[in-house]
Amino acid sequence: MIKNLLTVLIVFAVALTVLNYLNDSGRITLPEWFPTFKPEFYEPDGLSYVHFIDVGQGDCSLIIADNGETILIDSGEAEYSPRVIRYIKNLGITRLDYVLATHPHSDHIGGMARIISSDIEIGRFIMPMVREDIIPVTSIYEDMLIALSDKGCEVTSAKTETVEFGGGTLDFYTVDYTGDNLNNYSTVLKYTFGENAFLFSGDCEADAELMYINEGFDLSADVYKAGHHGSSTSSSGEWLNKIDPTVCVIECGAGNSYGHPHAEALSRMRDHADIILRTDIDGNIVFTSDGRSVTYETSG
Prior knowledge:
This protein is of the alpha/beta class. It is built from 9 helices and 15 strands. The chain has an 8-stranded mixed sheet with strand order 6-5-4-3-2-1-14-15, with no helix packed on it. Strands 7-8-9-10-11-12-13 form a 7-stranded mixed sheet.
């Protein structure tokens, strides 16, 4: 009897280990209630980490500063919210000091309501000002606003500003776009730590990229999160010239119906970057910076 019970416990432990590994590597998505390994509280180690979380055809990134401060950038679609919540908790993170919703498309904010409503503490929530007549009247957008209100979060409109973030800085860049393309309302974010920099541009397309260039912002970065999932309408040659990245990261879903990333954008990126990484191929992608050099690991 004892031997049989021990066998069952061993099988259960192995199964739990395998399922957690598959979940953390992005191959499956487990529900929030599923038993997981309790992480120890995150202890700052003087390094900074930039996580590109595989959420299929969507964007979701997490930056952990050298002192443990955090910012979540987008969330992916609603179906991926359990994965994102578990990913954050498995790192031992209990508070997001900043959350940036780059623009209100569901593949960027779909999971926000559930993340906000979870037991993860939310500091400052930032989203762009969008022309009133094109604000999406969707349940996803409304649920996000309700969750923010219910939790009493500090919500601010994106503006051009620099904030200290550990031993580095977060530069939020905005331009006065007033057109009807929601992608072009995307807030651009640059994270700088020592000699290293990471640039996130949401779904900005070429006409908005030109506006940012004309504003004279410092867009140079070692790592560039490719705009609009590697669409041909983004990552223009002029834009890439300003960034001059060593690594490009494309967040997109395997076999997506949009054909992302497009060959034209990939060709332009290859003219600049030594390395192109993709969540549809490489899974979760994690960069580590000591302020002088950057390394990365993938789960794919």
